[in-house]
Amino acid sequence: MATKSQVPQGKALSLISSSISTLASNKIILFPLCITVFIQLLILEILYFSPRWPLKVFFDPIIRTFWPEKYLHYPSHLMLLPKLWQMVQDPLFVLISSYFVAVAIGIIAMINSGKKVRPALVIKETLSFYIHIVVAIALSLLVVKAGSWVHNLVIQRAFLIRSGSGIFYWIKRIIIDGAPYFNLLLNVIVSSLFAYVLPIIVIEKKKVFPALLQNFKMFFGSVWPTFLIVLIPSLSYILIILLFSSSFSLEETFPEMRIWILVLSVFISFAIDAVVYTAITIFYLLKKEQK
Amino acid sequence: MKKTLLILTVILGCVFILFSVLGRKGEYLAEKKFWKINKKFVEISRDPKAVPEASFEAILRDYEKFIKKFPHSKLVPLAYIYEGQVYLIKKDYDKSRIKFEEITKKYADKPGICVRAVSEISRTYALEEDWDNLLSTYQRIVRDYPLTGLGFQTPITIAQFYISRNKPLQAQNAFSEALTHYKKLIEESPDKPLVEFNALRAIAICHMAQKRWEEAVQIFGKVLLKFANSPYLNERNAVQIAKWINTISAAQLGNINLPVSIYQQFINENPNHPFRKTLEDFIRGFETLKQKNESPK
Predict the structure, then answer these.
(1) Which of residues 78-117 of B touch A (CB under 8 A)?
(2) For A32-70, what is each residue's pLDDT tens digit?
(3) B1 contact A CB<8A
(4) Which of A4, A89, B2, B297 lies 20 to 30 Å from B246, alpha-carbon distance?
(5) Considering only residues 135 to 154 of chain A, which have any Cβ-Cβ distance to chain B shorter than 8 Å?
(6) Is B119's pLDDT higher than 80?
(7) How far apart, in whole angstroms, are the C-alpha atoms of residue B247 and residue B240?
(8) Pairwise CA distance, residues B168 & B162, whole Å
(9) Domains in chain B, please, with CATH?
């Protein structure tokens, strides 16, 4: 575990490398995140098999209600899969992933305090703050959704630009082609803004609103390091964006490509969460020690 | 921790195997296999001349294997049709026709499949430029499968065939015969609203082809009013019909009061219809046009 002397304060890259070495030497931190990966892959399996018997009995009426009949069949179903996955993501993130991230933070704090790590105890202790964790993450998600809503308005406006050349054409292209990247940036900004909420709830055992208040104080006290700690590992998600944008040509011959990209995105998100939350928790503990 | 992770991985594996085994019961696997064979078929049909004989044989074998592996699949009739099409793109028209004839015998109780097979037979004659057999195949479709989608379309296709062969007199006769055919269908199927719906639209199209514009508009109007609350008049059909009414009235008849009166009647009879807003937009459009025409230049 990194200590104050090992990590130059405010250096995002050092914190990230320290986070990676902490994870490598304390694999137990990954355990709760592995449970999240398991749940996500299980849901992905269920969605993948949803047009087949016996799951189709349950999923057929749902899909028929919202999409045309063709999405119940191969290969159109695989085109629908990312949408279904996206719909599942938000509740999964708020209700399950957030809790296991909090457990991972609890384990990091336990390692930092020099106590023997007892995951069962952390799981139990974190459970008593479950409501606060869920509310905090739901609020951050609401901010992301609000940002996405504004972003969509901008995209819709961009579609109305008729210019075929010149500055307005380039603005249109940047807004439309850059949409997935801007979405990633939006997520990074909001994650940075709420970065310390979970460590504060888990370590300080504070309720959601005092935790939010303290989080904003901490964030505005070190905006750039926090932002960079979240941004740098999140850049690896660009691989998924690139794969999705290039998959349209590949899926003509290999429609299953989409499911594999989703599986890969689960593992990349797992790696990002592990590195980001470990680095943020280390940074938080260092600042706490400093006080 | 390692033990738990191993258990979780085993659970994921078992769930995958379980659903894969249970999923064999449905159509999904057949769809997947069929899609993959069809991909190969699309590949060879892009440039059949450059395709070696063995590739045709391989695809035919794939379809045969598919039929044997999934004998109860809904896709089997389509597999037979694609088999016939492989011969067709190979330019082995005789063999192709034999395959399609087999389908009509095998699925004699399924007119939708039979008519597709017979339509493919007509394609082989068209490719051979055997016009007599092409026409007799069209007539076979009209005679044997009059209530299928292709069956409805074919009397008009016959007339269009004469137009394309530069035989206007025969084309007009074909349109007259088509009109008689459609009217007869309506008389013979009083309890089948879909037949009347399709036949009326086809009648209107024949009138358009005969340049009997006013009758065409009247028939289209009748379809709108009579089938206002029928599931057959979906938004796509309704918009198409209204566009025809608009175009004919404005461009051919120069009578913009006619569509306005039809749409007004429709709105009066169906005040809560979802299509009301579109029709009101059309009425407003016509009124603006009328004002422009009336205002001094």
Answers:
(1) none
(2) 999 999 999 999 999 999 999 889 899 999 999 999 988
(3) yes
(4) B297
(5) none
(6) yes
(7) 11
(8) 7
(9) 42-145 (1.25.40.10), 212-290 (no CATH)
